Amino acid sequence: MSVPEWADRFRKLAPEAGSTSGDWSTRTVEIARGPMLAVTELGVETITGMVCTQLMKTALIENAVGFFVHLDPAPMLIVQPKEAAAEQFSKERITPLIRATPVLRKLIGTKKTRSAEETLLYKAFPGGFLALAGAGSPDNLARRPVKRVFCDETDKYPITREGDPIGLADERMATYVGSLSVRVCSPTIEGESLIESSYLEGDQRQASVECPECGHRNFLDFFKHINWDKDYDDDGNVTAHYPRTAQVLCEACGCGWNEGQRLTALGTIRWHQTKRFRCCGKHVDPLSAYAAAWKADPASDAVALTWDWWEGPRHAVYRARCPDCGTWPVSNEHASFTAGKVFSPWPNDAPPKIAAKWLASKNDPDKRVKFDNTQLGKPHKRSSSKEVVAELLAARAEIWPAEVPDGVGIITVGGDTQDDRVELEFVGWGANEESWSLLYVIVEGDTSKKSTWDEVDRQLLRTFKRADGREFAIEATCIDSGGHRAKEVYEFSKARLGRKVWATKGASDRNGKRSPLWPTTRPSNRTRTVFKPIIIGVNSAKDTLRARLTFAEPGPGYMHFSTKRELSWYEQLTAERLLPKVASGRVFSVWDCPKGKANEATDCRVNAMAALAGLIQLGMKLNAVVEAVSPAPEADIPKRRSPKLAPPTDEPPPAPPKPTKFANRSGSWMKRRR
């Protein structure tokens, strides 16, 4: 019996474990059949599932565990990122699975199996046990020999001195014949993702579906197969999108599938080995060979020319075949799978829904990471790894008709503190975080002296005028307190919390961790009485900053620069590099400023971004504010500057501004950080 057969015959769904209850049906989630069949496929020792969220990862673990407990008992281990996550998985997944499925309920938790040591993290049954552990506890991973290991959410595993948690867990299977290691997770960042690395080590299986009209097998890909109506201008540029019209288009016949046809097609899913191989002196890419075959002769059976269908009572997969000798050069010892939301049968994952999510994320670096990982099931390639040339940024600088361009809705300031100066960037923010570098000021002086901070305060009381005469004051300021002047920054910001002047400190993220730009949790009552800086996610901010520097056209996230910046400022803005590092066998990326290079402009912009994030955390709706203060319809079109850099000019500050637009909220927890 295979795992899908076992689940269809014996498994019951608990009401609290999902949106449905009753009998399990693999036909409902056909995409999961292949990975479940791999559990009993002859020769398979490792299974990897690099897939999008809410598709099949948990179902694979649950059904495999149930199958083994019932029909092939042995010691098993489930590894979650942390022990708390292991307990939660036991409560929300394993316990309902056992309680709802009669054949499991008879084996686990009876008087014969219940013992004093049985807990949320240990379930005994005749012939074996199921232990659950956190990846951050190497002792727990190495405690018991087991025959089967299930590693869930692998990309969230911490880096430990003992090494890779997956490797530690797999070592527990050394004494068993016929052992099995299963790893599942949505991927994260390309080149850093554990699940991506595991997938690439395997035979890289991808799914195809049959076109309801012509029978051609499509390896569904969001960008290749999902299309929707658009409006275009005379130059062919898209002016409007209509994601509600999104549908799958067959690459062979061009037929668009309605939702009924798409669901019918999902019932024809087959899995194919797609890993490149070398045989008979040739390198072969199965997917490329398949595409070349059907394009050369649409009437041919391109699938049969590329793969052999290998099916039995407990397995079913297309094995990659050498076109010359007919052998199967790709081993199935490690069966690895990948799939995105285009294979999901759920209404919330229909093409119009995915298309809408794509349009909402395509211009936002942070949202794009989430889209790639959770919707496509693919690792995100950092655009921050692209080279950004300071001279090219300087060449696109603009001249504005007023201090504040028409697109600006609010102004924030980011500050960087050195022993002999404070550098400040005044940034105007428009819709969808389009930004304008309005002013850059260096306040020179000993930063241990009050006179220097008095001048900083005077700068922060500036107002800026738009062409129509409207004045803008500074809405929020973040000043880095991580240098030698932490005490002075604390005192300065604490006295001005009512004006939203915040002291910040970069999060001590290690091993490539990315903390949120602005903390999402409220401080506890214990910490509210003690003044502390805001801990900001500098790595996340620098990822976003570098990605936005690559944007070529004005719009969401685009960065506008003034002609009043010198080339050295652009060099500081682009000084840092993203470098790969390795710790305990894990690859990750860190931002590094080369020795001898200055990066104050980068730090100032990061803090200006943090100030905006702080306002948003307090409830400000940026786009609504921009719309509310937008000027009359006259366009404010910036003039392109000449390639030659203009010299900097002195900009004397105006008189202190009128009260800011955003009233201080007495209930704000930020205000209470005194």
UniProtKB/TrEMBL annotation:
Database matches in InterPro entries: GpA_ATPase (IPR046453), GpA_endonuclease (IPR046454), Phage_lambda_GpA-like (IPR008866), TFA_Chaperone (IPR051220)
GO molecular function: ATP binding; ATP hydrolysis activity; endonuclease activity
Region (Disordered), start-end ranges: 504-523, 631-674
Feature: compositional bias, Pro residues: 645-659
Domain Phage terminase large subunit GpA ATPase: 19-271
Pfam short name (any one): GpA_ATPase
Domain Terminase large subunit GpA endonuclease: start-end pairs: 334-612
Superkingdom assignment: Bacteria
PANTHER family for this protein: PROPHAGE TAIL FIBER ASSEMBLY PROTEIN HOMOLOG TFAE-RELATED, PROPHAGE TAIL FIBER ASSEMBLY PROTEIN HOMOLOG TFAE-RELATED-RELATED
Record protein name field: Phage terminase large subunit GpA-like protein
